[in-house]
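RETRY 2/3 - previous attempt timed out on the joint model. Re-submitting the same 471-residue input unchanged.
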Amino acid sequence: MAEVSFIDEVCSVPGGESIRSCIQCGVCTGSCPTATKWDYPPRQAIAMVRAGLRDELLSSNSMWFCSSCYACTVRCPRDIKPTDIMHALEVLAIKHGLSTKRSRTPVMYQCFVDSAKGNGRVYELGMMIKLFLKTNPFAALKLAPVGLGLFLHGRLPLKPSRIKGVGELKAILNKAKALGGAK
Amino acid sequence: MKKYSYYPGCSSEATASPLGLSVIPVAKELGMDLVELEDWNCCGSSPYGSVDKLQATAIAARNLALAEKTGLELVTPCSNCYVVLGGANDNLKEHPVLKEQVGKALAVAKLSYKGGVRVRHLAEVLYSDITPEVIGSKVTKPLKGLKVAPYYGCQLVRPNGFDDPESPHSLDELVASLGADVVPWQMKVSCCGSSLVMPEQEVALGLINKILRNAQENGAQCLVTPCPLCQINLDAYQSQVNSRFKTKYNLPVLFVTQLIGVALGIKPDDLALSRNIVSPMRVLAPYL
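RETRY 2/3 succeeded.
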C-alpha cells in the first residue's frame, strides 16, 4: 500500500478536509495576531501541506502559535478553516513525534490534557506548576507575582476539583484511544 | 422563568471565580433558572483538540450526553467551552465515522448522544432571551457617566458565534442598557493571546498591551468581558504588562455579570468584586 500523502493525512482529521480549496490569497496570514512568530505563517504552512513538506512543517513551531482566535476562519474567502487545519497539524505532529522544542505550547497542551483526564476537570494550579517544571522553572519565578495575585484573590484553589464519574470518564477516553485516531 | 442546563466550566471554579460567583445572583435577579449539569467534566478545551481529535470529541460528548438527558439547552459562561462544546456538536453531525466511534466510547459508560443539545453562551442568553430592554427595566443603580469598553474577545463571536464576527454589538447594547457610556474603540474583537500567555508570555503580553492601550486612549474607565481567559489575561497580567512596557495601566476588567449585577443593585460581596486583581472599587464607588 502506498504511503498516505501529507495532504490526505491532513484531510483525514476533522476540520482539515477543506484545505484543497485554498487559493493562497494570504488573508489568513494577514489576519493572524501571532504570524510574525511562526517559522512558516499560515498561508505558507498550507502551501507546505500541499507540497508534501511533512517533516519540515510538523517539526516547526508554526501551528503551536495559533491562539484559536478564528480571525482567519471567518475571513477566508474559500471557506476553508485554517484554525482547524492548524489543530490538525498539531495532532499530526504529536502522532509522528515531530513536535518542536522551540515552542513550549505542546508541553502545556499535554499537561492540560493529563489534568483534565486525571480529575475530570482541569486543575489550573497543578497544570501551571507541571508546565514550568517541565519547560522553564525560571519563568515560574517571573510569573510568581501573577500566581500569588490570583491566589490572594481566591482565584487559585490549592485543591483540585474532581468529578464523581472520573472512572467512567477514563473508560470513555481509553475506549476512544483504543478505537484509534478519528477518521 | 426559563430553565437552562448550566455548564460553568473549570475556570469558573478557580481563575475565573468572580465569573462563576457573580452568575448566580444575576441569573436569579433576571429570572433565569440555571440548573448545574450534574457531574459535568472539562470540555477538553482547545488543547485536547490539538492533541487527539477523537478523545477530544469524546470528552466533550460526555457533557452533551448528560445534557441531552435533561432536555434543556446547555448554557455556559465560558467562551472557550462554548466553542469547544459547540464544535464537538458540529463535528459529530458532519463526520459519521467520528460519531460512530464517539458513540462506542460513550457506550462504555452507558451513555449515548443523539445530537439534540443546543449549546449557548450566557451572553447570548442575556442578549437574546432576557434582552437588554428587560435588563434595563430592572436597573436600580444606573451606571450614568461610567465609561465602559465592551471587550468581546474572539470565541464569543468566532467561528460560529451569535453576533457579527468583526463588528459585534450585543455586549454594547447590554452595557448601554445599564445606563453606562459605551466607549467606541477598535480592539473589541482582537485576540488577547488566550492560553499562549503561559507557554509564550512575551507574545501574549504584547497583544494585551495593545488592547489596554486602545481602551485607555479612547477614554475607558474599565473594560467588560464575558470571557474567562480574556479577563484573566487583561486583569491578572496587567501588572506584568506595566513592568514589561513601562506603562501605568490601572484599568479594572469586569465580567459582564459583575457589571450587570452592580446596576441591578446586587451587593458587591455577592458579585465577588474583591476578587478582581485590578480593583474596580474606585470606578464603581458612585454606584455601590
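Chain B touches chain A through 70 residues (CB under 8 Å). Closing ticket.
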